[in-house]
Amino acid sequence: MNRDLLRDLYAAVCAALLVLTAVLVGTAIQHRDGSLRVGWPPLLASWDPHVGPGTPAAVVVAAAVVAYGPSLAARLPWRPLLLAVWGASMAWTWSLALVDGWHRGVAEQLTTRNEYLPAVGRFHDIPAALRDFTRHILIDSPDNWGAHVAGHPPGATLTFVLLDRIGLGGGGWAGTWCITVGTTAAVAVLVAVRTLAAESLARRAAPFLVLAPAAVWVGTSADGYFAAVAAWAVALLALAVRGVRPGLTGFCSGLLFGLTVYLSYGLTLMAVVAGAVVWMGSSRRRPLLCALAGFVVVPAVFTALGFEWWEAYRILVTRYYQGAGGVRPYGYWVWANLACTVLIVGPATVAGVRRAVPRPRPAPPNHGDRQLGLLVTAALLALLVADLSGMSKAETERIWLPFAAWLLPACALLTGVRGWLVGQAVLALLLNHLLLTGW
Asked: Are 148 and 222 in contact (CB under 8 A)?
């Protein structure tokens, strides 16, 4: 066994020990005083071994990707590869979601009291609802919003309002939207890695983007949809700074970045990843100016309609500490959140990040590896800032999906690919069959 592979295994074992420690310590704290507010620390889940309609499909998809994914990723033409990755990602995510059945796994996920769909009926007059949005954020305010509506800018809720307006109302369509759009994040990441680093690295990363344990939470949570919007914003920016129709791709990237910060306040930290992309791109001003022009569109529209982002965020901070965020102990979650991250990215990504993060080496890495390392490091930095902020105590298995998507391509640097893919698939299958997750 070579030294690099041994170090990869050490990293994976250390990550597993972190998860085990978070489970044991978290269970003790939760039994002592209930302050963690989760059923199976560090995840918002409960212990419930079960199988379901999606079980056979999930096993078949995992086996197929392990057996054929690396070779197909190496030889398929580029565009068919992107379609294959999207299709396989949807198959994997749908099968995992359906382990809990159609109603529990998909149709009811976004309809509970704290989710988005119960608020759809309050947006008959969208401009009026936006002008009045901040008045209902605090828990003690009249007709206060549910936790997820209050905890996000209204762009998140408006997505489901608009789906309802075009005849795609209800939990089934909402869940289908989140899975269909959310799984495109894998395609966006491949486009960015090919553009900024190397096509060979993107191809090696492809099977890992399909079999990511994060799929457990992409199907079904709105954060999977948020992750895809953010991922396409980064991918289009990568194309712009590398001169691929820079005016159009830059403007569209800006539009999506603007939408991203109106889907989730925390995704302002995607600016760190965007900064790394700009650093790796050209020095031409045109794509950046076009991206800036696109970015201001969404804030301008929301502001004109009466929603003030900064004021809403200020009130949200108060709401956060009125609820579970004021009870959950920072001293536990500041490191247990990282255990959640291990569970959504899997052991292969931990080993890949070990290889990707820049460090002193006997010989300098090649250009593609270095570029990939910068992209992964930027995502890791954004995640760590979110962690230290204290505004993401628990539930990061879904909240951090947009950052986790950019850690996964580090797997392109691994050797022994099929073994690592088995580890990723087994972890996802165990999570989905042993636990009943909150999403």
From this structure: yes
